[in-house]
């Protein structure tokens, strides 16, 4: 899974824009408070002050893109003192660049002299003390938000990878389960000193006989095994159904279900095997499917 770079960039620009709008509004209200508190002007319009703040924050906005791309490179790194100090240094450098830009703009727009000393005393130092705190806080807020946003994107990718791995493993398990079943393929019957191998697909039905089980097939003699029907039921395929307390039938060898007074299954060799009333529904369900 890949990150949609364009979508992520738009999302992060939106985040910076929201922070920018909040910062401009905050500083505008702050300026209105000081003007009214110290009676600097009689008529103060919010929109007029808001417009005066915009160009400075637009500069702040575009310079802040450096953080966006820098954090993207470092988001997968472990947060430690070195990373924190690195970004504090970047933020302070960006703030100084901001102060320098807006100071130069204000100086050339408003000043009637090119005195360097006046530039530093009346503009650079003024904006340094006035703007630095909120610029620093703004960049810190953006750094935290962007870091969390990028981390969330990476986490979602890792989660999706795990989901894909789980799905792949599940499919592989199902394939292996089908190809490597623990069900018996043959029955081994001891006949005297010999061991008779009877393929499962040759068996028609199994009949309880005291402590033994008689194994019946179409083209082979019937053999007796010293085992219980319950034990055989656990190792045989699903098409071997317990139809009676005394019998298990290979349903693939059934050609008919006789629903008379005493229900029974008629096998391919025309042998009839009784079906108990308690197992009749199970037999019907199997045949229906």
TrEMBL record:
GO terms for molecular function: DNA binding. It comes from Polaribacter ponticola. Keywords: DNA-binding, Membrane, Transmembrane, Transmembrane helix. The chain crosses the membrane at residues 12-34, 54-71, 83-109, 134-151. It comes from the Bacteria. Pfam families: LytTR (PF04397). This is LytTR family transcriptional regulator DNA-binding domain-containing protein. Residues 187-289 form the HTH LytTR-type domain.
